[in-house]
Amino acid sequence: MIVIMQPGAKPEEIDSVIREIERFGFRAFENPGVERKVLAVLGEVNLDKADLVDHFNAMPGVTSCQLISNPWKLASRTYHPEDTIVEVGEARFGGGFASVIAGPCSVEDLDQMRASAKAAKAAGARALRGGAFKPRTSPYSFQGLGEEGLKMLAQVRDEIGLPIVTEVLSEEEVALVDRYADVLQIGARNVQNYALLKAVGMLRKPVLLKRGFGTKIKDFVMSAEYLMAGGNLNVILCERGITTFEDSCRNTTDINAVPVLKKLTHLPVILDPSHATGKSEYVPSIARAGLAAGCDGLMIEMHPDPAHAASDGAQSLNPEAFSALMSQLHRIADAVDVRM
Amino acid sequence: MIVIMQPGAKPEEIDSVIREIERFGFRAFENPGVERKVLAVLGEVNLDKADLVDHFNAMPGVTSCQLISNPWKLASRTYHPEDTIVEVGEARFGGGFASVIAGPCSVEDLDQMRASAKAAKAAGARALRGGAFKPRTSPYSFQGLGEEGLKMLAQVRDEIGLPIVTEVLSEEEVALVDRYADVLQIGARNVQNYALLKAVGMLRKPVLLKRGFGTKIKDFVMSAEYLMAGGNLNVILCERGITTFEDSCRNTTDINAVPVLKKLTHLPVILDPSHATGKSEYVPSIARAGLAAGCDGLMIEMHPDPAHAASDGAQSLNPEAFSALMSQLHRIADAVDVRM
Amino acid sequence: MIVIMQPGAKPEEIDSVIREIERFGFRAFENPGVERKVLAVLGEVNLDKADLVDHFNAMPGVTSCQLISNPWKLASRTYHPEDTIVEVGEARFGGGFASVIAGPCSVEDLDQMRASAKAAKAAGARALRGGAFKPRTSPYSFQGLGEEGLKMLAQVRDEIGLPIVTEVLSEEEVALVDRYADVLQIGARNVQNYALLKAVGMLRKPVLLKRGFGTKIKDFVMSAEYLMAGGNLNVILCERGITTFEDSCRNTTDINAVPVLKKLTHLPVILDPSHATGKSEYVPSIARAGLAAGCDGLMIEMHPDPAHAASDGAQSLNPEAFSALMSQLHRIADAVDVRM
Amino acid sequence: MIVIMQPGAKPEEIDSVIREIERFGFRAFENPGVERKVLAVLGEVNLDKADLVDHFNAMPGVTSCQLISNPWKLASRTYHPEDTIVEVGEARFGGGFASVIAGPCSVEDLDQMRASAKAAKAAGARALRGGAFKPRTSPYSFQGLGEEGLKMLAQVRDEIGLPIVTEVLSEEEVALVDRYADVLQIGARNVQNYALLKAVGMLRKPVLLKRGFGTKIKDFVMSAEYLMAGGNLNVILCERGITTFEDSCRNTTDINAVPVLKKLTHLPVILDPSHATGKSEYVPSIARAGLAAGCDGLMIEMHPDPAHAASDGAQSLNPEAFSALMSQLHRIADAVDVRM
What is the full per-residue pLDDT of chain C (340 aa) written as tens digits? Predict the structure, then answer.
């Protein structure tokens, strides 16, 4: 349920609606940064809904009270009709802007990150990715450089000037990653790690939330709602492929998810064609498709030397291929009236 | 296995290789319409393959003999490296051309088809679709107008000038549909109806083969191989969505299939965003994505009055929406250097 | 919609209801072989349903008229609450009986079929399977012996005394296969080949309908409805595995389908653990599971010499393993009060 | 790689092999509690493997050194051929024992848990389940009673005598849950929450690890390997349904996973038919199937009053239905020579 206040509603009217919301056992959430006050009413509604709607509609200063039939509230287009734009450095996601995040799967050393950042920036990427904490299927595989890797990312950011996107794997490391990262990434395997979502939801820094490979769109949006219910509204949704019966690629890109998520939510939606295909030869085709479908950005794996990457080499572009792809993407962006 | 002849190989050298192929119990298939003769060696190879390759390599007029590790031969890029272009009327699919096929799910009456064809042509579509025989999940649903519908299609083709694409459901109706259609469509449910594939493979008319919603790409290509093994090389592959756990749309568009099929085969690949999403509001996004991904065409459901369509109204565009989409598609086509 | 007549309804009352059904544009279908007359009203109901129900409820001889909300009518438990029992030779499927069908994937020669039949019978199987027409993914693979194979099956039936189950691949071969087979099998790839379903639905011989590997349960039941709408009520439903993301086996056995199908329909439900796993080592476990879940029978691939089978050797049991499995199955059958 | 020592290998020989393992940069892991010492060599092997095998084979006291081709080592049947038996209270899982865990989805209050425990025990269950921390898709849904719930579980355990199984959602709560639980459950959504797996792997208490609904079997086993690499070998694997295109149930029970997991690993494998179907009416059928397939136990949701359960009421059995099911399960257990 949301309560939409009149444009000139007085603070005491708003307060009084909030108190009334709380009196019924709900939590009120004020949508910040918008002209017109909209209050989300959070909690499970077991009372008669029609009665509640009538009750709030009759309060002074209220334009209308509406039920939202979807289980997500803060993420809903109904609650927030305009595109949310997430900005970090020169990168902008949503509202007609589509930035590209590029970089290697894992932070390996300073030279590799510096080379990646230079190539990314030269080709027009607006942010740098690199994993310092890596979620590896095997406990015996390289698990990332940890804080060392975060420091390298920060140093390269200071040198080259691209904001950094890096994954946080555990609630205990949220504070640590937050000290270095510009955007915190929550990976596919943690998309329903609610403890981690709650911890990151307490921050106000942008979050890039990847869909799980077995997660339905509606559950994916609910994971975003977890972040937002903590007060962090800077959420970027990232489609990165789902598991299906088709085995010619590592995953199946759910391209339908792009328009579906854009319809259901106001959050920016980006695509990771590297994980979604698992093969660098298919990345350009799927990157173009994502942008043409309406994505608000792309996250692309690029490594100075894919053949010797510590992880995910097979799906990483080299700098030349990445640069060539960026030229193609600019043409697509023009064709769909998006600024890259 | 394929045997590649020298550019100036003499007819008697070619004949002699063919006889040798047959002596080993295989079937020789000459790739028509190309400068350099390439002979496909069809059949299960139980002999020692290395010996066979040596044997053919030593024959006069042979450039090289190669094993093809994939189970498809005639459909393989190895056998036929250039794009096959399928042409019908002004429609061209493959080799840098991407035509749009548009029209209603079912043929309902002459007025509906005439209105559809006019709107399709006016917006730049190059072929008209319409089903006279409909594969319906329920035996109690409308099963199509049958030959009456085919006659309407033919009449509209003669009036408006667009070639017609229509489905054939059963081997017994192949001859009948062949009398009217310009392109025979084999639907998703019949993708592994091998009796039907064999019957249509005996024709030389273009075939539009739709992927099954549960069919792996490699099995889909084998179904094309069935058509081609009969001698019909004019095969268009059509991705139309697969079934997965995601339930926000009718199907999941397997956009990865576009670059994968383009790599594995030389056949034109098109996308049907209408079935792949099941909702007209998502069709423009996915149509653009398909073209940007490298499709050689699109098949889009358009109906003069979707709300009253006999079938699939929810996924059909009306003429205005279709026309608007065509403008977007022309911009994408320009951005990927494809002629629509 | 179904109309249930009173136990002593007069023939003229029944006739009059049938005429009324037809007057509204529907088709009436009389459920044969049951004490109490139940008339299924087939066709798409566009009239006001409540009015229709009232109308028929008021007719003489009618006990009650009920809407059936599922799209299947003749296959529905609502229409026919008791288990249908399909009998052929000594095999019985449904209603507390669970027979095992065993035999090789393909008919190869008379000795192989004779050995298979003897082993099957000795171990307690009630029917013999063997494919004479084989649906092979590759046009270059062994396609079955055709009518020669059917003759071998028939000869072995006459010698050993087990009824034979064999696949029909195409509507043109229905009459031919019908001359030899005791049960006609429709394979997974043809589960929505409606032309074939219609042709087989005109017979009165039992049909074993396999679920497609990408077919939803509700669409599977609709395929059975196609057979039944033609008047053939002797339909056995066979779960044989579906395609999912899991790749450790050839398919994923949808064991849930057993109780779901038993609830939705009155038809016997059997399981094919050989295709559902693709590996003979897992067949005993899954066969036991199927029987314990409530299956009305099992179809198991068994070959006298799996290592040299023309097809599907990897999933075939040898006679010793099959015999050992049958002992296990008898114990499970006792535990669930089923007669094998 | 594993190194198998001779039965009478001297401690100094074992030490010397361990030092050699570490000299090459690996970690040695001694399989505890078995007669014959087997050392697992953990780490990524980039050296020439054949050389390494030769090297260790030549060391004194070594019977043989073997490569394990699967990525899991400690969980592998090759490393540990006999069934691992996990025991807690009177519950035993594996090695011919199959215990049933029963109880409600969520701990609601003391009366509900007491009633659940009494009914579970009376019907023959050996352990009690109940969630105090609940992973809910919506941040606005009931999230469990937290430590209050753990205390209720502990009190009921002391009163009724059944060990308790309860979920831990986050690494920060591991110590807390460990204070009360007899078996720590890691839920489907956390199956690849490696931070949590590492934390729980440091304990020595039994862990019930649920498969994710989108997790491949081989990745599921790797998650168990994470637990075991920390030294916790008391791992129970739980199949609970996967997401597929089939939508008649909440999930698709992957019954094949039972024999597959039993072959790949030595760990006990149990099935949760309640989540795997999502509908209580199908639970008995699937529970029987699991036991017949070879499960080492079952986890079944049972609630004193399913219609008023705080969560998952639709899939919970009431005590009468549970008791009836247990009678059926005892018959199946006898039929497969398993002690319940």
Answer: 888 888 788 889 999 999 988 888 888 877 654 556 778 887 766 667 778 888 888 899 888 887 877 888 899 998 888 999 999 999 999 999 999 999 999 999 999 999 999 999 999 999 999 999 999 888 877 888 999 999 999 999 999 999 999 999 999 999 999 999 999 999 999 999 999 999 999 999 999 999 999 999 999 999 999 999 888 999 999 999 999 999 999 999 999 999 999 999 999 999 999 999 999 999 999 999 999 999 999 999 999 999 988 888 899 999 999 999 999 999 999 999 999 9
pTM given for the model: 0.90
How would you class A252 by CB atoms within 10 Å of its CB: exposed for 0-12, middle for 13-18, buried for 19 or more?
buried
DSSP A255: T
Name chain A's partners: 3 or more CB pairs within 8 A: B, C, D
Does C2-66 match C86-335 in CATH topology?
A: no
Per-domain residue ranges for chain C?
A: 2-66, 86-335
Residue C304, CB half-sphere, CA atoms under 13 Å: how many?
14
Give the integer Cα–Cα distance in Å for C205 and C195. Answer: 17
Distance from CA of C330 to the nearest CA of B (A): 35
**D190 contacts in chain A (CB < 8 Å):** 192-193
Q: Does domain A86-335 have CATH number 3.30.70.20?
A: no
Integer Cα distance of B133 and B139 in angstroms: 13
Instruction: Say if the Cβ atoms of C135 and B192 lie within 8 Å.
Output: yes
CA B181 – CA B200 distance, rounded (Å): 12
Q: Measured between beta carbons, which residues in chain C are less than 8 angstroms from residue D249? A: 256, 260
Which phi and psi (to 5°) does residue C159 adopt? -70, -45
Give the closest residue to B137 by CA, choosing from A18, C222, C150. C222
For residue D277, the chain C residue with the least C-alpha distance is: C256
What CATH architecture does domain A2-66 belong to? Answer: 2-Layer Sandwich (3.30)
Q: Which residue of D has its CA nearest to B249?
A: D245
Question: Rounded to whole angstroms, how far apart are CA atoms A165 and A185?
Answer: 6
- Mutation choice for B interface testing from D245, D249, D250, D252 by most B CBs within 10 A: D245
